[in-house]
Each structure stands twice: as structure tokens, then as C-alpha cells.
Design goal:
Length: 429
């Protein structure tokens, strides 16, 4: 397989061209013949015009690459090595939503041929590739897994907004359905990954490794969030505590915050789901999720308490929220906990302006029923800096005071600013 791909006798197809799929497809296209497939025609048209819908890549990333963007199954059928990179969200009940990945499996199954490979990059619970996706591929193709086609799993590790740890510079875990498949998948990926390859012993091991990466981070942040709740009651600044504790050589530096996005706030639920299916109710993982999910309500309650302490009438208050994307300097609003914070404050009848130049106003309105403001106004009783976009880091305390009423309150959820004098009531997680 690898040699045929290298000589461009066969081609690679990347199914799903979002934050993960598009950068991967373009890197592969520097060396191989690539088909970039997505069901969204509007996104495909943008990519044909060298525009990244996710606003992560420059137009130069689309130059000197051998790639065909399409929504056509006929064109997709020309590929022999399929990489599935679609989202794996959870539903409103925090249950894994496999519709995107199973839908992609149905699509690939319709064009699958003898000798083809299918490699999944989407984050799933251990067993999903072989137990859920494989039967769909067999059903749609009429082929038999093993003798007719092979499977692989290579979890994505892309870090949105990170210009240094790009696809090529992140060590890649690879796995296959048998030793031969593992070797072929490893060869294909090693041709573009400069950081190196790690061969997992099985697909399930690779799936498990990915899902615990984000679960571990989720738990570490939840511990910090719980500490921030405790220390707030004690009147202690959590950041100052962490700076002091961080002087010990083996202290792990994590910080409290709103945990959103398509990975950290979602992946633990995949592990929880599979564990419960097997008759075990995880306590630590679930506890961490509960704490992180309650943080928007905690911040909202704190702000309300501060407003009341300043003799503010909540119904007459005006609050500015800066940022709604799930992290700094990206346009991704998926699973935004800032949106949860907005709705928590709205329940108190507080008037709010939400500003974020990185986010798409139409997407925010569609996803969260929140109307973004084009610009910062004035006469705010409080400002909440929710996302550490670079443009906000340049703000000074004096800048904030100019747009705020008397007895101003500054909520710094990312710990961007130094504690000001008593002219501004400053609070942070």
C-alpha cells in the first residue's frame, strides 16, 4: 500500500475537513495524491479558493499540494487509503453521539474496495473502531474485514491555535488491525510526521491512550477549579497559591478555568459511557466533570454577589463579556462554557454585551442564540475577560476604567492581568 501511495498509483482520502482533517490532508498532499472529502459544499468551495473555513491556515498552506476537494462519492471511490477525521461530540444528555463517525463509515463503506485501508482519527471509547465502525463498513461494502480490507487508528493530537505544534511536529500514535496493517499505517504517517511515530500494540490501546490524554487534563483542571471554590471562601487568591506551590520541582502547573471545546470537555464522557456499559461507575472522572461543568454557574453567582455588594440593581446592570471561543486565538465555539456563563447571568436579568472578533457572529447566534456585539461600548458595571485572546492581553486597567461606571468590577477568568489598586474590584479564579 505505502509504495503505491508514494508512487501516486493510489491516493489517500481524508473524510471530514475540519480542524483536524484539513491540516492533515494538506500535509499529506505535499507528498501523496489526496482527495479531501466533506459533505458541506460551502466549505469545499472555500477550500477550493484556498480559504480555511476554520481560519486556522493561511492561503499559502494550499499551495504546492496535490489535492482534490470534493463532495462526490465517485471521486472519493478513487482512493485506497481512507482517513476518517470527523467530530465525535456528546448529546444533550452527555452521551456519546456516534452519528458523525458512523455516518462517515457508511460513506466510506459505499466506496470501499478489496485491499483498501480505513484509518480513524476521531476520539472514541476503546473498542469503537472495531465494534461499531467495522460492521458498518462490512455492511455497506459487502466485504469482509481482514481478508478484504484492514483497519487502523491514529488519534488526532492537533492543538487549535498552536502555530508551533502543527501536525508534522506532534508525535503520532498509530495502530492497525494486525501487524501488517500497523506497519503500513506507520509508514504512511511517518512520511509526514517529523516528531516521530509510536506504534501501539492494538487499536483499543491507541483509542484508550487518546481518550485518557484529555481525561487526565480535565481532572487536573477540575482539581484546580475545586481549589478556587474553596480558596474563594477563604478569601485567598488561588493564582497566588499556585505560584507559591509551583516553586516545588515536582508540582504540576495547572490552572482553574472554564473547560469547553470539542476535546477536554467531551472526551471523558466517552470513557464514562463505556465504563458504565461494562458495569462500572467511575467516580473520579465523573466528579471532575461535575466540577468543571458547574464553573459557569459558580462564576455567575460570584459576579452577582459582587454587583449586589456594590449596591448595583441587577436589572439595571450592564456587563461586558470578552471572548466566547473555547480557547484563545481560535474561532472554534464548540461546547463554549462562556455561552453557559452568559445564559446563567441572563437568568438574573442582567444586560450583557458579548464581544469576540475571532468568532463568527452567525455561528454564535445559531448555536447559542447569542447576538455578538461588533464593538465594545461603555458604561459597564462589570467586565468579564473570559478568553485570553492576544488583543485582550494589551488592555490595561486604565483601559477598562474608561468604559466602566463607578465601583467597577473586573473578572479575569484567565489570570491575564496583575492585581490593580482598589479603584477596581478585581477577581479571578
Amino acid at each position: 500500500m505505502y509504495q503505491d501511495l508514494l508512487e501516486k498509483k493510489k491516493s489517500i482520502a481524508v473524510v471530514g475537513l475540519g480542524y483536524v482533517g484539513l491540516p492533515l490532508a494538506l500535509v499529506f498532499a505535499k507528498k501523496f495524491k489526496v482527495i479531501g472529502f466533506d459533505i458541506n459544499q460551502k466549505r469545499i468551495d472555500m477550500m477550493k479558493n484556498k480559504i480555511d473555513p476554520s481560519k486556522e491556515l493561511l492561503s499559502t498552506a494550499f499551495e504546492n499540494v496535490d489535492i482534490e476537494f470534493t463532495t462526490s462519492l465517485d471521486i472519493l471511490a478513487k482512493a485506497s487509503f481512507y482517513i476518517v477525521a470527523v467530530p465525535t461530540p456528546v448529546d444533550e444528555h452527555k452521551v456519546p453521539d456516534l452519528k458523525p463517525i458512523l455516518g462517515a463509515s457508511h460513506t466510506v463503506g459505499k466506496v470501499l474496495k478489496k485491499g483498501d485501508y480505513v484509518v480513524y482519527e476521531s476520539t472514541v471509547y476503546p473498542g469503537c473502531t472495531e465494534e461499531d465502525c467495522k460492521p458498518v463498513l462490512e455492511l455497506e461494502s459487502g466485504l469482509t474485514f481482514g481478508p478484504d480490507f484492514k483497519l487502523g487508528y491514529s488519534p488526532e493530537r492537533i492543538n487549535p491555535g498552536d502555530k508551533e505544534r502543527t501536525v508534522e511536529h506532534i508525535l503520532k500514535i498509530v495502530s492497525g488491525s494486525d501487524p501488517e496493517a500497523t506497519e503500513e499505517v506507520a509508514k504512511v504517517y511517518s512520511s509526514i510526521i517529523k516528531a516521530g511515530i509510536y506504534k501501539a500494540t492494538s487499536i483499543k490501546v491507541a483509542e484508550a491512550a487518546k481518550v485518557i490524554e484529555n481525561t487526565q487534563r480535565d481532572l487536573n483542571i477540575s482539581f484546580m477549579n475545586e481549589l478556587s471554590i474553596i480558596f474563594d471562601r477563604m478569601g485567598i487568591d488561588t493564582r497566588e497559591v499556585l505560584e507559591a506551590a509551583g516553586t516545588k520541582w515536582n508540582f504540576l502547573k495547572f490552572y482553574p478555568g472554564l473547560v469547553g471545546g470539542h476535546c477536554i470537555g467531551v472526551d471523558p464522557y466517552y470513557l464514562l459511557h463505556k465504563s458504565k456499559e461494562l458495569g462500572y461507575d467511575p467516580e473520579v472522572i465523573l466528579s471532575g466533570r461535575r466540577i468543571n461543568d458547574q464553573m459557569p454557574a459558580f462564576v455567575a453567582k460570584k459576579l452577582v454577589q459582587l454587583l449586589i455588594s456594590k449596591d448595583k440593581n441587577l436589572k439595571q446592570c450592564k456587563v461586558l463579556i470578552l471572548g466566547i471561543t473555547f480557547k484563545e486565538n481560535v474561532s472554534d465555539i464548540r461546547n463554549s462554557k462562556v455561552a453557559d456563563l452568559y445564559h446563567e447571568l441572563a437568568a438574573y436579568s442582567i444586560k450583557m454585551d458579548l464581544v469576540d472578533s475571532c468568532a463568527c457572529a452567525d455561528e454564535v447566534l445559531h448555536e447559542y442564540n447569542i447576538q455578538l456585539k461588533n464593538q465594545i461600548e461603555s458604561n459597564y458595571d462589570a467586565v468579564v475577560v473570559a478568553v485570553a485572546h492576544d488583543e485582550y492581553k494589551h488592555f490595561t486597567i486604565e483601559d477598562f476604567k474608561k468604559i466602566m461606571n463607578i465601583n467597577p468590577i473586573l473578572i479575569d477568568l484567565k489570570g491575564i492581568y496583575q492585581r490593580p489598586d482598589d479603584s477596581v474590584h478585581y477577581w479571578r479564579l
